[in-house]
Design brief:
single chain; alpha/beta; 6-stranded parallel β-sheet; 4-stranded antiparallel β-sheet; 10 strands; globular; binds adenosine monophosphate
Length: about 300
């Protein structure tokens, strides 16, 4: 496994790989790796010649009062996991490497999409995500980039950026990896107390309950309201619980054929947790959804 922390070194390696027509699979992460991340690596291994994982806690996607300084980090364990899962190159740049002073990278902005859902509660967050992903795409020019559906809005935004500006890069959605009881794996779960960890299970229960009740022509509002009430009864503080279309992220009152995101962000004590289900309703009114994967299937 190659360890690179310098952008120009990575660029030289990628140039060589492109010259040899090697397919590059890229897995961007902020480290503190868990099964959610290693599933992306496994997917990348299946279809590419070379897998590059980045480990970079991107400062531009954190707000002034957020957890940038205390975001969990364990680079030794991350490197072991990357080695174990057969990663070819780990890229661990420092902030100056990604945001040099003679900065020439033009930003990509989708104000209508980045202001909604999580963007409403984390102003500037998705501009930071698009900023770093734009830089990674220019630097690496991967053939495929693997991202978790767990961060649904993030995936949809990066996919849109690729469609608009990097047509050669395929952004591949991977299912949300969950604990046995349904809680989505997240590096931030380490912040939860034992009681909060128990309460947090309710988030997935509410998503699953709504997904099971939706058919075509369902009014979404009463279902969303009930989910919010149930979460509050478990000492959780939902910021939003929404049913939106995947294209514009607009609220949808009544289901009809289309592609949707049922999504929520919930404060569990001082920890912010997000989760979602991607849902599709076919033209003949059949609903299907991706509930992610638990260890027991
Ligand atoms: P992060 O390190 O949290 O920035 O996440 C890096 C990548 O891993 C993103 O594409 C996330 O969506 C993905 N990821 C994080 N947690 C999970 C999970 N539980 N299941 C699937 N993908 C995940």
């Amino acid at each position: 496994m190659n360890y690179i922390n310098n952008s120009s070194d990575l660029r030289s390696v990628c140039n060589l790989l492109h010259e040899k027509d090697k397919k590059i699979g890229f897995v961007p992460t902020m480290g503190y790796l868990h099964r959610g991340h290693t599933t992306l690596i496994e997917e990348a291994k299946k279809s590419n010649d070379v897998v590059i994982v980045s480990i970079f806690v991107n400062p531009t996607q954190f707000g002034p009062n957020e957890d940038l300084d205390k975001y969990p980090r364990d680079i030794q364990s991350d490197l072991h996991m990357c080695e174990e899962f057969g990663v070819d190159i780990v890229f661990c740049p420092n902030v100056d490497q990604m945001y040099p002073q003679d900065d020439l990278v033009a930003g990509v902005y989708y104000p209508e999409l980045t202001a909604k859902l999580c963007g409403k509660y984390r102003p500037g967050h998705f501009n930071g995500v698009l900023n770093i992903m734009n830089r990674f795409f220019i630097l690496i020019e991967p053939d495929r980039c693997y991202m978790g559906k767990k961060d649904g809005q993030q995936f949809l935004l990066v996919q849109k950026m690729a469609e608009d500006h990097f047509q050669k890069i395929q952004v591949i959605p991977c299912p949300t990896i969950r604990e046995y009881d349904g809680l989505a794996l997240s590096s931030r779960n380490v912040y939860l107390s034992a009681q909060e960890r128990k309460d947090a299970v309710q988030i997935n229960i509410e998503l699953e309950t709504i997904a099971q009740q939706l058919t075509s022509d369902t009014e979404t509002e009463p279902l969303l309201k009930r989910a919010i009430t149930n979460l509050k009864l478990k000492n959780l503080e939902p910021q939003y619980f929404e049913f939106v279309d995947q294209d514009k992220l607009n609220h949808v009152d009544k289901t009809q054929p289309g592609h949707y995101l049922l999504c929520t962000a919930v404060m569990c004590g001082s920890t912010r947790l997000i989760d979602n289900y991607f849902l599709d309703i076919s033209s003949d009114g059949i609903l299907s959804f991706d509930k992610g994967k638990r260890p027991n299937g």
